[in-house]
User: Fold these one by one.
Assistant:
Number 1:
Amino acid sequence: MAEEQQGQERSEQPTGKRLEEARKKGQVARSRELNMLFVMIASIVFLWGLGGWMISSATELITDSLSPDGELLTNSRLLPSHLASVMVSAGAMLAPFLFVTVIAALAGPAVMGGLLFSPQAIAFKVEKLDPIKGLARVFSTKGLIELVKALLKFLLISGVAILLFLSMEHEVMSLVSLEVKEAIMRSGEMIIWAVLLLSMTLVVIAAIDVPYQIWSHNKQLKMTKQEVKDEFKETDGRPEVKARIRQLQREASQRRMLEDVPKADVVITNPTHYSVALRYDSESSAAPVVVAKGGDLMAFKIRSVAAEHGVPIYEEPPLARAIYGTTEIGDEIPAPLFLAVAKVLAYVFQLARSAPTDYVPRPEAQPLPDEFQQYNSEGP
């Protein structure tokens, strides 16, 4: 309301949150014309298939009811039980038809907007008793449109009904000359045809009303640009939500990174504050690739996983800090560090090929280029 008063136009499509909130309040697109069409079609199908049985049963029931035996006429105490029997028979006859129509009445909402039970929609609200607001709803644009629809529907159905009566006038008037049973059977047939033709008018009405109701519902839920911004701030835009998302992303990235540590050829450490896992595959890369890196607690986790899977751990603080500070996970190490890393890998590969009793001398640390000294000027 405040946005509309400030002149902002509702030009934005409703968000998922807006649609969900409206659904909880019972605000979904509905078409009474579609519901009526479903009921009429179901009625026609039922009457077409079982109409003969219903008409025959109704004929027998009416005939028996209008032709009581002599004992019933002389003993008034039998009237209640006779009336109850007639009502039970009538209920049993109408029950299948009523069941089909109830299912059809539920099918309409299920197709358009889905079945929905909203306590908020049926909750008592004092403002609903306000006569001024009630008149405002009646004389609103929506109320006028509903009035025009009702008048058009009345004129269309009335016109078709009048045409039906004129076309069946002779048959209707001739019913008085028929026997009761035959007249009832003939009336049932005419009713079925009349309902069928009247339903055709509802197809036209529903074809117009359903798109209009969907458009009207969507228009009612449209939002201003400010409402979209405010909603974003309340959900994904909130700092705590962003922080939580970043935390989950970091945790997922760390899990994937630790899963790659067993594939590494060596883990170069600081020895305690930094750990960098390297893997070299001459067929897929021209230089060793960083598959994992971390500091402090993550460095400890990397070393633990490496030790658990038998990956060699090589302590060389300057080289570990230089790789950690210049290379991201998945990247090849910088070219100036090739020689230093090559010495480490050569030592590790030679150690893996040698016998447990063989002595493999540890190579001297390769001096790093001047541009990498900044990563070793401070820290452990």
Number 2:
Amino acid sequence: MELVRQGIPARTLLTRESLENAIRVVLALGGSTNATLHIPAIAYEAGITLGLDLFDELSRKTPLIGIFRPASHYTVNDLHDAGGIPAVLKILSPLLHNELPTVTGETIGKRADKSIPRRPEVLHPLESPLSAEGGLAILRGSLSPGSAVVKQSGVAPGMLRHIGPARVFECEEDLKNALHAREIQSGDVLVVRNEGPRGGPGMRELSIPAAMLSGMGLNDSVAVITDGRFSGAARGPCIGHVTPEAFIGGPIALVQNGDQIEIDIPDRRLNLLISEVDLEHRKAAWQPKPAVNTGNFLDLYRQLVMPADQGAILKFQATQ
């Protein structure tokens, strides 16, 4: 690769503007919520300040031009046939920083100019997108005062706004057991906690419960909320990365079975519908979950990991 042969360091390519381009592509294609972990973590290592507010700001301005399995029947093979990422760059070029270099020595704009987008049913033009907004949304409210992340492009229209009763599970396994026992009802809001970066420890992917809900035909009527995360293949109202996480006493730790939870993705809200007085009483009575000592790297990880809204990076902090 030309720039590598010239000895140009990677951080020359890793700028705020290049990461904004990357975010735009993720948003335009309904990409994984994991991008809200990986891109801020890359930015941190490159010395760039980049938070989740940027994802939401760009999502409101970046049309959705393609969606792929499991949110549609199209696959990455269809994306390739439609021209691949160069075609995506061509379509998005009015929104991108086109002057930036790539590892080949070409600019983004020149690389995009060489592409001819094909199959408009797969990659839609900006003038007639699938949606005016990109695939990800950042939610905040009394349940997620820090933030929460949802792939809105994979949510059925009828579940973009939903109020339902909480069903609380202390870990992924408890939810899987309830699903196997057919205990979940349409309209439930499943709250899975203690799966965050510190609580896991490790922020597990709840891909199996999400797939089970889909297989049971409940992904369009049941929501999942967690301080853990989901895979790029999750569909339905799967809301993850809730901060502060349960392990450190975030509001998700205070949810009780039967509490009403409000999800409003268009207005970016995620609320626990109980009174401030009740919430304060629960905070006063809350006891942290005892940490399981693994005797290995995960114990160190738990001490050093930062919240999901900071990319779950490892950060050494000065002690008093």
Number 3:
Amino acid sequence: MTKRSLILAGGGLKVAYQAGVMQVWLDEAGLTFDHADGCSGGVFNLVQYCQGSSGTQIADSWRDFPILHALSLNWRQYLRLFWAESLMTYDAFRRVVLRGKWKIDWNRVRASQKLGTFNVFNFSKNQHLVLTQDQMNEDLLVAGVTLPMWFAPVTIDGERYLDAVYVTDANLIEAIRRGADELWIIWTVSRKQIWGGGFINTYFQIIEITANGRLREDIERIEANNKAIAAGGRGEFGRRIEVKMLAAEVPLHYLINFKSTGFTAAVEQGIADARVWCRQQGIPLKSPAGNLLGLTFDETMQGGFALGPTDPEQGRQQGAAQGTTLAMHATVHISDLDRFLNVPDHPGGLTGTIDFPPLGTDMPATTGVFNLLKPDDANVDKLFVYELGFQHGGKSYYLAGRKYVRKGGDPFRETTTLYTKLHEGRDTSGPVIGAGVLTLGVEALIAMLSTVRVHNAQNKRDEFAALERFGKFFLGEMWERYGIHLERP
């Protein structure tokens, strides 16, 4: 019988994303695990899992996380300047989160039938400890997330305990030792490999070096083991070990965050990514398709356009000279926001009307294609794709437009300029009979933003989280194309 271990890797407060994944894996996919291991921030989710919380309850525990009330400054230490033992304390976190919002019941945790292992470092003995849930208490849990300098070591029976992150941020070997054949890893430590300056960035990048380096070493050991077994040998672990990892870049900082809404967005990102990941793995989900979060918005672009030219710029010039313009009044339909954000082509649907006096006005287009920041064939530029099929006078036409987003280009001009061709027929395979350039003016852009709507949200909180996820995706892509490459935690 195959044994599974759930690896709740560290990642500081980024593990809010991990909780979203747990909602999908535990509740929607119905996965069960023989063992779960938590390191650093992952112990926050592990303790709730051992307490018997469902994946959804764990995800809910991070929504609207009370960050401004959860961490307390160590005022008494600041007067000591360079001799200060820590910058913060966990006093407020214990009171507001562990005993308040999460209501951790240590009797239930210790009596749990779910096997969980917690990683803690005993500084007094220079010893990495792996403790089962029946050995845990609040002090040991807090010790498991106590980063040096930020927090003072936790003293227990005269010995000092800290986060084990510099030893491991995902204890794969412990899971194998406990009989796991499959390791299901949720990884939130950044792997962007972009160095950011400054003391805080440097501190957490040292953790990234340690965590990613150790993870790679362990996975290489597993791969060598599997290769040896495939060749007829015994291998280091005596059996094949399968690694199933979901890794993500989460736009929360490991420690320094000021907005509760960011945690809700991270949870929703975890849910979205996990659903897509499960579909790719062929894992069925219980969530009904009819309740998928969707999003729509309206966009009107217009500009010089003429019949005859096949080059958009020539069509624009000829249209300007002749006084002919084309207006596209489109509604973008994103029926599955989760899929849209996680599939590389970022696909949606398009409907609307076309105004082009040489053919007609208010011509309805009931089918179309939309892609936002789709990679081009050479993966150099990214494209906004707008395609609408319509009929007039018994003939079929297909309007196909592209916005080209180039590395280091002009962001406003490129994202508001649509190079357009008009084809005969039902797709782009038909002959080009006209061309032009459509633009989105400032007034039209403002009008477009006012039309954004979220569909199938259960409440205002989920609606706002969906808008925030969409906005962060778009702005993040814009930063990558046009921004300065600095680490953004």
Number 4:
Amino acid sequence: MPKMKSNRGAAKRFRATANGFKRGQSHKRHILTKKSSKRKRQLGETMMVAKQDVKSVKQMLPYA
């Protein structure tokens, strides 16, 4: 049986941890002038993947 391929887009976006997968947040790349400092600061934090989405992330990253 050949090895399964990881979804390369997902591999760049998610990292496996002991408790699930961590991810970065979107909307921090451009059009930053209208966003408040608080909003931009909070967008810089990493978050965990939602419980409902863990199954699909696991399918995309079979060896994570």
